[in-house]
Design a protein that fits this description.
The longest helix is centred in the N-terminal third of the chain and has 16 residues. It contains 19 helices and 26 strands. The chain has 2 domains: 309 residues, Metal-dependent hydrolases (TIM Barrel), CATH 3.20.20; 126 residues, no CATH class. Helix 6 runs parallel beside helix 7, helix 7 packs parallel to helix 8 and helix 12 runs antiparallel to helix 15. A hairpin with a 2-residue loop joins strand 2 and strand 3. With 572 residues, it is α/β, with parallel strands linked by helices. The strands form 6 sheets. Strands 1, 2, 3, 4, 5, 19, 24, 25 and 26 form a 9-stranded mixed beta sheet that branches. The chain has an 8-stranded parallel beta sheet with strand order 6-7-8-9-10-11-12-18, sandwiched between helices. The chain is globular and about 75 Å long.
């Protein structure tokens, strides 16, 4: 019998750590129906000779909640082999919502995740109140990839408490209603509930978002209802006091009896272990299921003429304020003016050059932390793997320049297109192999869809392959693909995805594994109202299939949108 599609002669890496083998993959409708030697013909056949055939990649930390409404192709994630995303992280979502509160949720997403408010308000239909209705609206967008969504604490709390949700403690009745609504959202299709504990996540007026200081009894009550409905929990926590944050997550997990996903950037603890390890060991000894997700590369801001982050972040000098106010398209011409450039240099030399970004962001004279800032280069592939002695401070010293002179010189040499990478998370790459290799850690936190004017980490899957597999040989091919697929799927628990096996959905990548890598970030103006964002393309992707259809071919999206909404318990 003929199959709908056959991928022939590829090196099959199933995502389950089984040894790679040469073979074929047969697909009928949206499902893998045969693996190995397939004698039958296919209505379409893809020659994968010399390529690696893998499951589609899963991205557990995105903020596509808004963008998916006007960009159903889900870029840039879909350029990097991602076939399933999880959105609604960090306690923020667009439902449940009352009609009169939509502007508040849009403003909150703008201030927390740097997604333009007007793009959110104009680019989404807002024809929903409940979380289930929101999922229906997203499903109607017909996204290119599969979408799972978390319901956010901030929206849920505000729906119940109104303005009181921001700074007031909940009453006992409030807690009952918040927890009940959380459970209802899970029953309506949310795969879980997200909580934010980071004080840096604030409303436009400077107050912390609803739920930041929620009492333990509220968080536990929510977890109980979420777990009873079959949902997972997700949290971003403060690093200090870490012991208290981990204790509260322990209590939530006990109440939920479900899976907890939390953002876990590397934090050093005793004897070279991660600071999380004692609490993780305690939870797992108690039979609790917890996963931390961490960036596979140093993460941080992008500084350059094409971003909102210049050499000066807060200088009150007229020259740097003028450069900040100048339209991006005109900045290069401005710094080419020698007199103006000399004024920038003079004013830059008067700034504080910080060692640590968190210590001086509030300073009116703050300039980039030059020992933590790295030139990404002029090559097609950005350099994320600089050693500490290759920082902006070191480049400047070697050239006999002040760092501000070096910053301006490299902007000129790149015709204003180049970027500096300002590291503030996972700065030391040497600790990451053992950390990411732990069975409770997965790579990720690309934040696709968020921080669009200053951060671009959505190419993390391509980086993982190019750096940790190809450049360094840290992980085998089988380990690499496992960490991008089946290991990620442990969190979502999708019975029909995350691996190549007969009966699984045909979410598949065909890769030129020796060419897979990310490209330099680029600024585009393709959000509603021509609002700008940073994007990052990938190469080495021959084909990406979602539910049996080719959504990307030779690194370019085909326009086919074959994703499905992965509602709670989907695939089980």
């Amino acid at each position: 019998m003929a199959h709908d599609l056959i991928i022939r002669n590829g090196l099959i890496v199933d995502g389950l750590l089984n040894p790679a083998y040469l073979g074929d993959v047969a697909i009928d409708a949206d499902t893998i129906t045969a693996l190995g030697k397939v004698d039958a013909s296919g209505a379409r056949e893809i020659d994968a000779e010399g390529a690696v055939v893998t499951p589609g990649f899963i991205d557990l930390h995105t903020h596509m909640d808004a963008q998916i409404g006007w960009d159903p192709l889900v870029t840039p994630a879909s350029w990097h082999g991602v076939t399933s995303i999880l959105m609604g992280n960090c306690g923020v979502s667009f439902a449940p919502v009352r009609p009169e509160d939509k502007e508040l949720l849009a403003a909150m997403m703008e201030s927390v995740e740097d997604i333009p408010r007007q793009a959110i308000l104009s680019g989404l239909s807002w024809q929903w109140s409940s979380f289930g209705e929101y999922l229906d609206a997203i499903e109607q967008c017909k996204p290119a990839v599969n979408v799972a969504a978390l319901v956010g604490h901030a929206a849920t709390r505000f729906y119940v408490m109104g303005e009181r949700a921001v700074e007031e403690a909940p009453t006992a009745e409030d807690i009952v209603q918040i927890a009940k609504l959380a459970g209802q959202s899970i029953q309506q299709g949310a795969v879980g509930f997200s909580v934010n504990r980071l004080k840096a996540h604030r409303l436009p007026d400077g107050r912390c978002i609803p739920g930041t200081f929620a009492p333990e009894e509220e968080l536990v009550a929510i977890a109980k209802e979420v777990g009873a409905a079959g949902g997972i929990m997700q949290s971003v926590i403060e690093a200090h006091p870490l012991d208290e944050e981990m204790r509260i997550m322990h209590k939530q997990l006990e109440a939920a009896g479900t899976h907890m996903l939390f953002s876990a950037p590397w934090l050093p603890g005793a004897d070279g272990a991660s600071a999380y390890q004692p609490a993780i060991d305690s939870m797992r000894a108690a039979g609790l299921n917890i996963t931390g997700t961490t960036q596979p590369r140093a993460a941080g801001f992008l500084s350059g003429l094409n971003t909102v982050i210049l050499f000066s972040l807060r200088s009150k000098s007229e020259s740097w304020q003028k450069l900040q106010r100048t339209p991006v398209s005109e900045r290069l011409a401005l710094i080419k003016d020698q007199a103006f450039r000399e004024q920038l240099i003079q004013d830059g030399k008067a700034m504080e050059l910080a060692e640590h970004i968190g210590q001086t962001l509030s300073s009116p004279k703050f300039g980039l932390p030059c020992t933590k800032t790295f030139w990404m280069g002029n090559e097609d592939r950005p350099n994320y793997a600089h050693q500490p002695d290759q920082s902006l401070a070191h480049i400047a010293a070697a050239a006999g320049e002040h760092p501000v002179e070096t910053w301006l010189r490299l902007q000129l040499e790149s015709e204003g297109k180049g970027f500096f990478h300002v590291r503030f998370v996972n700065e030391d790459l040497t600790v990451l192999p053992n950390y990411m290799g732990a069975d409770w850690v997965v790579p990720g936190v690309g934040d696709a869809g968020a921080h669009v004017s200053m951060i671009m980490d959505a190419g993390w899957t391509s980086f993982f392959i190019s750096h940790w597999y190809r450049d360094t040989g840290t992980y085998s091919l089988e380990e690499t693909i496992h960490m991008l697929t089946a290991k990620q799927n442990r969190v979502l628990g999708l019975a029909d995805r995350g691996a190549l096996a007969v009966g699984k959905k045909a979410d598949i990548n065909v890769l030129d594994i020796n060419r897979v890598e990310e490209r330099q970030p680029v600024r585009v103006e393709d959000f509603p109202g021509n609002a700008p964002r940073l994007i990052q393309r990938g190469v080495g992707y021959r084909q990406t299939l979602v539910n049996g259809k080719v959504i990307l071919e030779n690194n370019e999206l085909t326009g086919i949108r074959n994703g499905v909404m992965l509602r709670n318990n989907a695939g089980s």
